[in-house]
Task: inverse folding
């Protein structure tokens, strides 16, 4: 097996372990018990856990986020983005990203609570940034100026609010969530001054910085 095949095999194993662990997270949270159960369901011995995810739960959550971003990008490649308005692209990408986790909705809820703990908030920030960056990339955004940051900050608010709404949505096929998402996007599009306010607030922080590197997404 060459080096590339080894990397692919490791990524596939990491995907399998994370997805096997999520049903247990729904009941146990990101506990050692859930992680051990996930390893067992993925066909790995407990001692192999440190080889696959040396960083434990936080590394698994980070991988799960990249996995979801990758699935969203795959879904977006299946639609005619060029024929869509920007608001339609954003709505489609956010919906695809949320739909990846439909089988794991309770695990998402437990993860949000876990990431709200002070030691874990840096991962919450970087994971959200990686997701909204992937969404803008899927929508064809090529900005490199200050709007690079303001677009992502604005979308992070829309995406976060939509995920929270989705967690408590009992409507058929989450129709209320997609309507909520559309309203949030419409609100942003209707308020042209919002972007200016966001850019103004961020300029002092980000103007000296180059565009952040795009986080690699799982394929």
Result:
């Amino acid at each position: 097996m060459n080096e590339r095949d080894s990397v692919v095999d490791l990524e596939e194993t990491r995907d399998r372990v994370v997805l096997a662990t999520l049903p247990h997270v729904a009941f146990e949270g990101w506990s050692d018990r859930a992680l051990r159960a996930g390893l067992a369901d993925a066909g790995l011995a407990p001692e192999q856990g440190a080889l696959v995810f040396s960083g434990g739960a936080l590394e698994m959550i980070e991988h799960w986020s990249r996995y979801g971003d990758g699935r969203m990008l795959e879904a977006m490649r299946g639609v005619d983005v060029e024929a869509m308005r920007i608001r339609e692209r954003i709505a489609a990408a956010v919906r695809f990203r949320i739909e990846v986790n439909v089988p794991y909705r309770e695990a998402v809820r437990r993860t949000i609570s876990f990431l709200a703990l002070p030691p874990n908030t840096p991962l919450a920030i970087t994971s959200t940034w990686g997701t909204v960056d992937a969404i803008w990339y899927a929508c064809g955004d090529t900005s490199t100026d200050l709007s690079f940051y303001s677009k992502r900050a604005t979308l992070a608010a829309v995406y976060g609010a939509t995920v929270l709404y989705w967690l408590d949505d009992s409507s058929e096929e989450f129709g209320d969530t997609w309507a909520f998402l559309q309203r949030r996007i419409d609100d942003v599009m209707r308020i042209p001054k919002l972007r200016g306010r966001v850019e103004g607030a961020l300029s002092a922080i980000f103007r000296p910085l180059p565009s952040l590197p795009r986080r690699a997404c799982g394929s």
About this structure: The chain has ten helices and no strands. The chain has a mean pLDDT of 89. Residues 80-206 form one domain. Residues 146 and 199 are 7 Å apart (CA to CA).
